[in-house]
Design brief:
The structure holds 2 protein chains of 2 kinds. By secondary structure, chain A is mostly beta strands. Chain A has no helices and 10 strands. Helices cover about 20% and strands about 35% of the residues of chain B.
Chain lengths: ~130, ~150
Amino acid sequence: MAEETRALQVREETRPARVERPRRVFAPAVDILETPEDILILADMPGVNQDNIEVTLEKNILTLRGTVQSHAPQGYDLDYAEYEGGDYERTFTLTEDIERDKIEASIKDGVLQVRLPKAGPARIRRIPVKAAA
Amino acid sequence: MIEPFVPWREIRRMEREMERMEREMDRLFETFFPRRRRFFEVEFPPMNVWTNPEGAVVTVELPGVNPEQIEVSVVGDTLTLRGKRVAEDLPEGARYQRRERFQGEFARSLQLPFSIDADHVEAQYENGILTITLPRAEADKPKRITVQAA
């Protein structure tokens, strides 16, 4: 199924959540896309805006962390709940080189988008095939 | 002592046993995957319902949806939410390595314990959270009846 173009792999870290935190921490649902030039991570973080999002890359560990401000309506009691308030955190290990200076992150409508451009060697190189003379 | 065989009682007992095992499984699952909850628990989008005597507020986790694509409608005591979450325009040659986020159309209805004043419903979308304020219809509010002394 997979073509041989997968030059970069993004592996999820299985480090346990920091349990000592007072608030619950959830792993946001993510989509990871790969193009020949970059890796794109989309993470659902409803309730997070640009002031309380943190994207860090330490060595090859990429951490996405979002803090949610409570949006509980004033003067109402919670009657029925399908989701719980809490923060988001998810960590990935990047197996190959990323152009660190060119990482871009943005958040819109509660969706974090991180673009990780591949560094030189990881990019797909097209090797021109010459016809034999 | 041998109890008489009563089929429904046996069934009830088996049910209880099943429930117990289910809880046990859930507990075990929680132990091993404490952070892995959100994706498969409830239908998309998850909602919370807040109430007071004057009405209700429904908050919905609905990240990445164009507010124009969200349709909120109210009939009697029922709130219906419809919409579509579409994939971002994929760049040329993009391939999914991982795909966990919900995509597609959704429709959910929620019945409240009172009639809604449809003319005063408000919906606001911010940071991927939809907040719908649903005031209780005036006619539905309890009336206090003064008890008169004879």
